[in-house]
Amino acid sequence: MKKRLISAIIALIICLPLIYIGGIPFYFLSFILALLAFKELLDLIDDDYWVRLISYICFLFLLGSCITKTSLDNLFDFKIFSIVLLIYGCLFLIKHHSDFKVEKCFYLLGITVFLSSAFSSLIILRNMSIYYFIYVFLIATMTDTFAHSIGSMFGKTKINEISPNKTWEGCLGGTFFGTLISVLFYLLFINQEIDIFSLIFLTIFLSIIGQLGDLFFSLIKRQYQIKDFSNIMPGHGGILDRFDSVIFIALAITYFINFLM
Q1: Which of 173, 176, 221, 245 could anchor a disulfide with 150, C-beta 3.0 to 4.6 Å?
Q2: In whole angstroms, what is the distance from residue 172 CA to residue 8 CA?
Q3: Which has the closest alpha carbon to 257: 76, 124, 63?
Q4: Which of 174, 55, 199 is nearest to 165 (CA)?
Q5: What integer pLDDT is reported at residue 2 of this predicted model?
Q6: What is the pLDDT of residues 60-94, one digit of tens each?
Q7: Vertex 20 angle, CA 260 and 149, to 5°
Q8: Which of 95, 118, 146 is nearest to 217 (CA)?
């Protein structure tokens, strides 16, 4: 518990000032976190140096294309996305004689698009306003915090075998308090004139999506028989262990941001 608390405090001391400042310092932080998250999924499969290098380049290519955007309407430039597809297609042709099978090619393409989309969304949200950025993280952290605490105290009904410690009581409690706190933050700091029922409905939806993200990454860990994606944060695991809910919420909010403005 002490190790977990210390690593959390260190992470907050490093990250919060850069998030507040925004601009280049925040871009630097985002790229570091995104690359670490990408590495965690790359490490699940065995690939040679050149395959990993090309994958990193494609990932940075997509992520970098969104760095100055202030709208989530068009996440990627179609031309850049097409280039990335062509690169992976050519990589498959070149490496087909080795163990680089079509499944591995599509795995790399999938995680490249998946994580670059999520982290690009977070970067653009911060470009739009730090308050939208905080709103997303509040939904994820408050839902997770209260789901864990309420589930520990009152949880009796297990959800499924993917994450045995999760209960329906914790899920509902996390959604309730995560929604309540996030809605209050939105009304106080972003827009007091928004339709309250639309805001509540959307926040509930995003809270549920965040919990599905948690289950999604838990299933990946279960299938690959690992406890954490890495040990970069002692007591917490890896970047994906901390950003599992945020990633799904960031992807979902791209379709609903116009309702929040």
Answers
A1: 173
A2: 26
A3: 124
A4: 174
A5: 64
A6: 999 998 888 888 877 777 888 899 999 999 988 98
A7: 70
A8: 118
126 with 134: CB under 8 angstroms? no
Other residues' Cβ atoms within 10 Å of the Cβ of residue 133: 20
d(CA 181, CA 207): 11
Do 133 and 125 form a contact (C-beta atoms < 8 A)? yes
User: How far apart, in Å, are the Cα atoms of 132 and each of 39, 127, 195, 253, 257?
Assistant: 27, 9, 17, 10, 9
DSSP 235: T
Phi, psi of 27, rounded to the nearest 5 degrees: -60, -40
Q: Closest Cα partner for 19 from 189, 134, 179? A: 134
Nearest to 127, CA basis, from 246, 21, 240: 21
pLDDT at 39: 95
State the residue for tokens 């045995």: 164
Cα gap 106→122, rounded to integer Å = 24
CB atoms within 10 A of CB 8: 15
pLDDT in tens, 154-176: 877 887 777 778 888 989 999 99
Report domain extents, the chain. Answer: 1-128, 129-261
Burial per residue of 60-92, b for 16 or more beta-carbon CB atoms within 10 angstroms, e otherwise = bbbbebbeebeebeebbeeeebeebeebbeebb
What is the reported pLDDT for 68? 81
pLDDT for the residue numbered 1: 61
The tokens describing 225, both together, are: 């028989």
Question: Residue 252 has which token pair?
Answer: 């979902």
pTM exceeds 0.90: yes
